[in-house]
Specification:
The protein is α+β, with helices and mostly antiparallel strands and 186 residues long. The chain folds into 2 domains: 47 residues, no CATH class; 104 residues, no CATH class. 32% of the residues lie in helices and 15% in strands. It is built from 5 helices and 5 strands; from the N terminus they run ααβαββαββα. Strands 4-3-2-1-5 form a 5-stranded antiparallel β-sheet. A hairpin with a 6-residue loop joins β2 and β3. It is elongated.
Length: 186
């Protein structure tokens, strides 16, 4: 069986995905270290630890690293709405989409976070002002990293609506949970 022809960018993404799998397996075995390597580390373990330190997530405001005490929101997907920069598949303009959703247009735009209700039974969309946080999420998701943001502050939530508003970019976890496809494990 022949391998599919990959572009250089796709090849690099596949290498990064496989390197992340190595990191996950080392962590599951209990010896991965982001700190200085333990003295008893083998050359392979030191190499994997160095790889893992290099692969750390792209950090952004709201990623949970500096916001101790704020729970994470498990997102299925998200999208960003900005004046002049609308997601693919959206034919309406920014002001029209804002009116349809029920929020006032803002120069900074809005982020839509698709998630589940507290009981996990209802699909809900949170319209939040955390645009930069959402852009950081999308950057990580594009690399296959299943991370979630911290819960927005009440002042960041414009409204919560039943149902998902899209088109959405699904998180890696959202793809698995909704059964819309998936990524190979190895």
């Amino acid at each position: 069986m022949t391998s599919p022809e990959l572009s250089e960018l796709d090849y690099l993404r596949e290498i990064e995905r496989l390197a992340n799998r190595v990191r996950v397996e080392a962590s599951d075995e209990g010896w991965l270290s982001f700190q200085a390597d333990p003295e008893e580390s083998t050359p392979l373990q030191r190499s994997v630890n160095a790889l893992a330190r290099t692969l750390r997530s792209y950090h952004f405001e709201g990623d949970g690293c500096a916001e101790a005490g704020r729970p994470l929101v498990r997102l299925v997907g998200a999208l960003v709405l900005k004046p002049g920069v609308m997601p693919a598949g959206v034919e309406e303009g920014y002001e029209e989409v804002c009116a349809r959703i029920g929020v006032e247009p803002r120069p900074e735009g809005w982020a839509l976070w698709n998630t589940w209700s507290d009981g996990g039974e209802l699909k809900v969309t949170m319209v939040v002002s955390a645009v930069e946080t959402t852009e950081g999420l999308l950057e990580n998701w594009s690399r296959g990293r299943a991370i979630d943001p911290v819960s927005p502050l009440p002042s960041q939530i414009a409204l919560v609506r039943q149902g998902w508003i899209g088109p959405t970019t699904f998180s890696p976890r959202g793809v698995r949970r909704t059964g819309l496809g998936g990524r190979p494990l190895s």
